[in-house]
Write a structure and sequence with these properties.
The protein contains 20 helices and 11 strands. By secondary structure, it is α+β, with helices and mostly antiparallel strands. Helix 1 runs antiparallel to helix 5, helix 2 packs across helix 3 and helix 8 runs parallel beside helix 15.
C-alpha cells in the first residue's frame, strides 16, 4: 500500500509539472490544425483515425485556445499509462518489479516527449498496456468482463492509430502457442475481445472507401516491400535517443532473455509476443523511411514489463546491478534532453490575426461584399482560423480560412468545401439559360469576389493559384510574426477560377 501511495504522489507531481511546462507555451500550428479537424466528430480525418483531433478539440473547449488546452489530456494519459504498466507487472511479477517498471517508463525521453505533444503515440501506448493488463486478468479468471475490457482497450488504441492493429493478433498467437490457453480460442471470451476492434477497423475502412482511400493511397506493393537497410544505424541511434543509451540495451536484453524463457514460461510468452510484434513493426516502418515515433514508443512500452525477466546474475556477471545503475543515469540524460529541447515557435500570434481581421473588415466595407480569407498552407490557415474572433463572414459549412486551390490533396482542407468548388445552380437559374448539351448546371459562390491572401511569398514570387485566378493582386500589408517571419497580405480582386 505504501508503494502505491508513493507512486500516486509521484505521478500527481509529475502530471502537474507537465501541465506547468505547457502553460506558458503558445498554441502551435499543428495543434490548431488538429483542433479544426476535431470540430466535426467523425471516425477519421485526412491524416488518420480521429482520436487525437477529437482530444485536442475537447481540451481547447475546456481550457482555451492555448498549448495547455490543446494538450491538456496528454499528461493525464501519461499518468494512466504508468498506472497501467504498474498493474500489469504487479499481476504477472511482483509489486517491486511493478514500481521499477513504472519508474523506468517515466525516464524514457520518448515517453516524456509524448506526454507533452498531441500525437497518437501516448494514447496507443496507454491502451496497449490496458489491453495487456485486462487480457491477463481475463485469462486468470476466465471473466467475460475482463475480455470485454481488453477488447474496448484495443478498439480505443485503434481509434488513435492503425499501429494498434497487432494487439488482438498477438494475443491470438500467444493463445495458440500455449497448451493451457489454446482452448480459449474455442470460447466466446477471446472473440468478444476481438469484436470491438473489428468494428472500429471496419468503420475506418468504410470511411476510407468513401474518401478515396486517403490513408493508403500512397502505398503500393512495391513500396511496401522496399526496405532501406542503410537506415539500420539510424534506427539504433533513434532507439538510444528515445530510451536513453542506458535503458536501450536493457530493453533489447530483456527481449532476448524472455525469448529464451518463453518456451517454459507462459508469463514470458504473454509479454514477449506483443513486444516482439511491436518491435518488428517499428523496425519495418523505420526501414521504409517513415517516422516511427508511435510504433517505437509502443514497442518500448510493451517491452518494459520484460525488464523483470532480467536475472540477478548471468554466469559470473551481476546483471541487475547494471539495470539499477541505469535509473539515475537515465534520469540525468532525460532531464538534460528535455531542458535542451525547445518547443517550436507559433506560426502566427493573436495580434497578427487581429490585424488580418481589421484589414478584412476594411476591404469588405470598400468592396461592398464580404472578403474571404486564403492562406498559403493548411498550418497557417488553421493558425488564423482558430484565432479569429468573428467567423460569421464564412459561408455556412465552409472553413473560415481556405487554402490555395490545388488538384493535390495534402490535408483535411481537401475534404472540406473549397472556394474553387462548383455547386449545383439554383433550379430557376438553371432553367432560364438551359443548354440542351449540358446535363447539369453549376455555379461558383465566389466568382467576382475579393479575397485576402496571407503568405510569406514576395510580390514577385506569388503562386499561380493567386496570380492566374484573380483579376488583380495588390500587397496591402506586411506583418512581422513572433518568430521574426514576415507575413504578407495581398488583396486579390475579381476571382474567376484558375484557367484550364
Amino acid at each position: 500500500m505504501r508503494g502505491r501511495l508513493i507512486l500516486l504522489f509521484f505521478l500527481a507531481l509529475v502530471t502537474a509539472l507537465r501541465w506547468a511546462v505547457l502553460a506558458p507555451q503558445e498554441l502551435s500550428a499543428s495543434d490548431s490544425y488538429l483542433a479544426l479537424c476535431g470540430e466535426a466528430p467523425d471516425v477519421a480525418t485526412f491524416d488518420g483515425p480521429a482520436g487525437v483531433p477529437l482530444l485536442v478539440h475537447a481540451g481547447i473547449k475546456l481550457a482555451g485556445a492555448s498549448a495547455l488546452g490543446a494538450r491538456l489530456a496528454w499528461p493525464l494519459l501519461a499518468f494512466w499509462a504508468t498506472v497501467a504498466v504498474y498493474l500489469l507487472i504487479a499481476r504477472i511479477a511482483d509489486k517491486r518489479a511493478a514500481l521499477a517498471g513504472a519508474a523506468a517508463l517515466n525516464l524514457f525521453p520518448a515517453f516524456n516527449t509524448a506526454a507533452l505533444e498531441a500525437t497518437p503515440a501516448l494514447p496507443v501506448a496507454l491502451f496497449a498496456l490496458s489491453f495487456a493488463a485486462c487480457a491477463w486478468r481475463a485469462l486468470e479468471n476466465d471473466s467475460a468482463v475482463w475480455w470485454l475490457a481488453s477488447g474496448l482497450s484495443a478498439a480505443a488504441a485503434l481509434f488513435f492509430s492503425y499501429s494498434a492493429w497487432l494487439l488482438v493478433p498477438a494475443l491470438a498467437v500467444v493463445l495458440c502457442a500455449s497448451h493451457r490457453w489454446r482452448k480459449q480460442l474455442l470460447l466466446p471470451g477471446f472473440w468478444m475481445s476481438a469484436l470491438a476492434p473489428a468494428i472500429v477497423l471496419a468503420l475506418l475502412l468504410h470511411w476510407n472507401s468513401t474518401h478515396g482511400w486517403v490513408h493508403f493511397i500512397g502505398q503500393t506493393l512495391r513500396s511496401s516491400l522496399s526496405l532501406h537497410w542503410a537506415q539500420s544505424f539510424r534506427i539504433l541511434t533513434d532507439i538510444a535517443r528515445d530510451f536513453t543509451p542506458f535503458f536501450a540495451p536493457c530493453l533489447i536484453a530483456a527481449i532476448c532473455l524472455a525469448l529464451v524463457q518463453s518456451s517454459a514460461s507462459r508469463r514470458a510468452k504473454f509479454l514477449l509476443v506483443p513486444a516482439l510484434a511491436a518491435s518488428i513493426q517499428a523496425a519495418y516502418v523505420a526501414l521504409r523511411g517513415g517516422t516511427a515515433h508511435t510504433e517505437m514508443l509502443l514497442a518500448g512500452t510493451l517491452t518494459v514489463p520484460l525488464l523483470s525477466w532480467i536475472p540477478g546474475y548471468i554466469g559470473k556477471w551481476r546483471v541487475q546491478g547494471l539495470v539499477v545503475a541505469a535509473y539515475p543515469a537515465a534520469a540525468v540524460w532525460t532531464a538534460l534532453a528535455l531542458a535542451v529541447g525547445q518547443p517550436p515557435p507559433a506560426k502566427i500570434s493573436g495580434e497578427s490575426v487581429e490585424a488580418i481581421e481589421k484589414l478584412r473588415l476594411e476591404q469588405s466595407a470598400t468592396t461592398g461584399t464580404p472578403v474571404f480569407l486564403i492562406a498559403e498552407n493548411a498550418l497557417l490557415a488553421s493558425s488564423i482560423a482558430l484565432r479569429l474572433k468573428d467567423s460569421t463572414f464564412a459561408v455556412p459549412g465552409h472553413p473560415s480560412v481556405y487554402v490555395l486551390e490545388s488538384p493535390y490533396a495534402d490535408s483535411q482542407f481537401a475534404l472540406w468545401p473549397r472556394y474553387d468548388q462548383f455547386v449545383d445552380a439554383p433550379r430557376q437559374a438553371a432553367l432560364e439559360g438551359a443548354d440542351p448539351f449540358t446535363e447539369q448546371s453549376g455555379t461558383n459562390l465566389f466568382i467576382g469576389r475579393s479575397a485576402l491572401f496571407v503568405g510569406t511569398a514576395a510580390p514577385g514570387n506569388l503562386p499561380q493559384a493567386v496570380t492566374a485566378a484573380f483579376g488583380a493582386v495588390r500587397l496591402v500589408a506586411e506583418i512581422e510574426t513572433a518568430p521574426g517571419q514576415i507575413l504578407r497580405i495581398y488583396l486579390c480582386s475579381d476571382y474567376s477560377t484558375l484557367p484550364l
